[in-house]
Records
---
Amino acid sequence: MNIDQPYWNPVLEQLPHEKLRRLQLRKFRTIFAWAYERSRFHRALYDRAGIRPDDIRSFEDIRRVPKVEKAMMRDIQRKDPFPYGDALCVPLDEVCEFRQTSGTTGQPVYQADTWQDWEWWAECWSYILWSQGYRASDRVFIPFGYNIFVAFWAGHYAAEKIGCEVVPGGVLDTQARILKIQELKATAMMGTPTYILGMADTARHKMDIDPAGLGITKITCAGEPGAGIPSTKRRMEEAWNAKVYDHAGATEIGAWSYECRHQPGGMHANEALFLVEIEDVDTGEIIETAGRRGKMVITALDRLAQPCIRFDSKDIIEWAPEPCPCGRTFRLIKGGVSGRADDITKVKGVLLAPASIEEVVRGMDGLGDEYEVIVDKLGDVDRIKLKVELMPGAEERAKEIEGRLKDQLRLKTNLGYRIEFYDYGRLPRYEVKAKRFKDLRKDKPV
Amino acid sequence: MDSGTDLAAINARIVAMKKTALELKILGADIPCIVRNTARILASLKMLEIGFSDVADLESGE
C-alpha cells in the first residue's frame, strides 16, 4: 500500500464538485425513500408535509423536507420497538450497537446501529485518521472510557482498519495512562481538548514528566470546540510537541468532518457521505456562499438503522472562501464548529459566543488553561464575570494581564468583564467535556 | 480523480465479490459461522460500494 497516498479514498475526496452534488442528490433520494418506507416516524413527518420519495428531484426539493430536531427523537423513544421507537428502520435483531447522547441538552437520545452502520462509522473515521497522517507504523493510545457514548469507539476501529496498533486506555486513571504512553512509546492519541490539556497538566505538575518529550506526534480532538480555536490548539501542540487536529461528529449524525494535515484553519465536510446544509438562523434560507454563519442541517447519506435526515444540529458553521491546498474537493468549514446556536446568548444586548472568550484567555501569556464565565443580573442589568488562573510566577504581572485581557475581550466580544484572578489549580478541572460557561439569569434572552 | 484509477474495473470486482458473498450466505444458511461472517463481508463490501460503485454508477448513468 502506498503510505504516501494523501487520501483514504482519492476517488471520492477529489471528485469534481458537480459530480459530488449529483452523487449527494442520488443518495439523498435513496435514504429518504428508505426512511419513508420503513420508519413510521419519518413517514408521518413527510406525509404531514406532503412530500414523498418521488418528489425529490432537486436540491430545492430537499430543502422542503422537514427537519428533524433532537426533541422529536426524545418524544418518540422509550417506546416499541424498544427503546428506539418509530424511527427504527430495521428489525430489532439487526441492531448490534446501542449508544446514547451525553444528555447535556436534556434527556439522552438513543442511537441504534446495524453492523453495516458500525462499519460505516469506522469508514468515516478512516477518512479522518488517514488525512491526519495515521499509518500502520503508529501506536495509537486511546484514553477514553469505552462507555455508552460513541466518542472514540469508531476512532479505535478506524485506527485498526488503517493498520495501526491500538492501545485501549480505558479504566486506567490519568497518571496510569501517561505512564503507559511513556512505557509503550505511543505515537498518536485521541481525546477531548479538555482532557488533552488536563493530561499535560497532570504530567507536568503531578508526575514531573514533560508531555512534550513522550513522543506523541499527532492528536485527534473531538467532543467539544477547542482544536478549532487557534489559541487552544496552540496550547495543546506546545504541551505535547505534536500536531493537533480537529474533528466534529455527533452520535445522531456520524463523523462528518475532519481537519487534514495542512491545518487549513477549518475542517473538511465529508461531502460524499454527508449532505451539509447551512441555514440562516433568521431567514431559514440555505447559505451557499462563504463568509455567512448559519446553523448546520445535515443528512447522513448511508446510515440505515436510525437515519439522520435533515437533522437540525444547532452547530454554527460557515463555508470557507478558498479550497484547501490539500486538493480535496470536500469543502472546508471555516474555523470548524464555532459554537452551538443554543450556546450563543445575548449579554447586555450583545450576541456572545463562548468560544470567543476561550480564544482570548488561552492566547494570553501568564494565564492557566482553565477559566469560568458567569453571567448574572444585578437588577435589570446583565453582568459578566471571567474567572482565570494566574500561572505561578505571573502574579506580579496581574495588573498588566488584567488590562490586556479586558482590552482583548472588548475587541473580540464587544463586552466589558469583571475579572477575578485565582491561584493556579483553584478553578474546577473537568475530566472529559468542560462546562465553563454558566448563565445564572432566570429569564435568558432569546 | 486520479487518472490511474480504473473505476470500472474496481466496480466490476466489487460486484463480483458481492455476488459471491450472497451466494455463500445462501449456501451456508444453516451454518452460523457462514451466515455471520458473510454478513460482515457484505458490510465491508458496502463500504467499497459507497466508495467506488456509487461513483461508477453515476458515471455510467445508472
---
Amino acid sequence: MNPEEARLILQCRRPQGQDDALPAMAEAMEVLATLPEAQAALESDAALDALIGAKLRRFAVPAQLRHSILTGARITPRLAWWRRRHFILSAAAVLAVGWSITLFKSQLYSPDSGTGQAVPSGSLAEFREAATIKISGGEIHLNKVSSRLGELQAYLASRPQGRPVSLPEGLTTLPTHGCEVFEWQGHEVTLICFETAEAGIAHLFTIDADALPADLSTPLPASVHGWETLTWKQDGKVMLLTAQTSPATLRRLALPG
Amino acid sequence: MDFTALVDRHYQGLYQFAYSLAHTEADASDLTQETFLRWAQKGGQLRDSAKVKSWLFTTLYRLFLNRRRHVTRFPHDELSGVALKLPSISSEAVRSLEASEVMSALREIDETFRAPLVLFYLEDHSYQEIATILEIPEGTVMSRLWRGKALLREKLKDRPVARPVSNIIPMQSPSRKEARS
C-alpha cells in the first residue's frame, strides 16, 4: 500500500475509531505513521470533516415529522388482518359460498331476485370495522398536524359545513397528533389522534348520529381486530374511541368519573 | 426494539439524508415516513438487529430511486482516477456557516457524490455500510467520498463568510461624499 492509497482509505475512517480494527485501516495507519506531513494533513482533514458533520447533524427536522411517523406507522407493526394468509383464504371461501347461494336463490325463485337483498349499510359494526381497518392499515393522512386540540378544533370548524364538536372532558386535556376528515359510506367522518400516557395513541372517530342509527343509550365497548373500541352518542354525534389498551383504560379516557 | 425508540433513534438522520436527496421538505418527510411504514410492515422479517440502521437507509434510498422516473446508473469510479489533494478551507470558515448553508452547499453537488457523503457525515456509517446501502463497491465509495469532499469544500469556499464588525467598510462614508463634491 502506498501513501496515496493509505490516505484514500483513511479519509473514510470514522472519528470515534470504529473502523480501526479493519485490516485495511490498520495497514493504512501504519503506512502514514512514517510520514508526519501526510499524517498532519489527514488529521486536519478529519477535524474539518467532524466540523462539517456536526453542522449537518444540526440541520433542523420538521417539528411535526416525529408525530406524523408515529401516528401513521407505529400502529402497523402487526400485519393488517385482511392481509394475513388465513384471512385471504377464509374470505375467498366465504365469497365462493356466498356466490353459490346467491346463484342458487336466483335460479330457484325468479330471474329478478338474483341481486338478493342489499346488506344494511351504516351499521355500527361496519363503522367499527372501517375505523380499525383504517388505523391498522396505516391509512391515516392527517389534514392538520398539531399537538394542540384547540387548533384542530378550529381547523375542523373552519371547513365548509364544519361545526364545533364538543369532546369528552377526559380528552380535552390530552396532546394531539393531528386530525383528518374522510368519507365513509357517503358520510363525513372526523378523526382526531391523541397521545395518551396510558394507551399510546388513541383515535377518536366522529360521525353524525343520523348517519349511524344505533342504540347507544349506554356506551358500547367492543374488541375489533386487537383494538378496543368504545362507542357512545354525544350532542348529535356518534363517537368511537379506539386504542390498543384495556376496555377499562379506554372508558376512563372517554368517560372519566 | 420498540417502534418509538427506533423512530427516535433514526428519524432525524433519515430525514436529513432524505432532504439532501429530495427537492423539498415535503418530499423528504414523505420518504422518511414511508421508510418507517415499510419497517412497520416488513421490518419484523429482519433477524439481525445490528442491521436495522442499514436496512432503514437502504430502504429510504431505494424509495428515492423508485420515485425518480429515470434512474441513472452512474459508472463506478476507479481509485486510480482520484486526485489526491483536497482543496483547502479553513475550519473558521466552516464554523461561521449555518447548518442550512452547509446542507445547501451539499445539495448543489451531483447526487453521485452527495449520497455517500451525506451518509458519511450524518450518520457515521462505515464505508462498508455505505457500500451496502448504495449497492456499490467499497472502492467506489472511497473514491466518491474523496471527490465529494473536494466538491463540497469548493462549494463551501464560495459561500460568503460572516466577518467581524471591524472588517466591514461602510459603503459611503461622509468623508468620501465630501471628497466627491
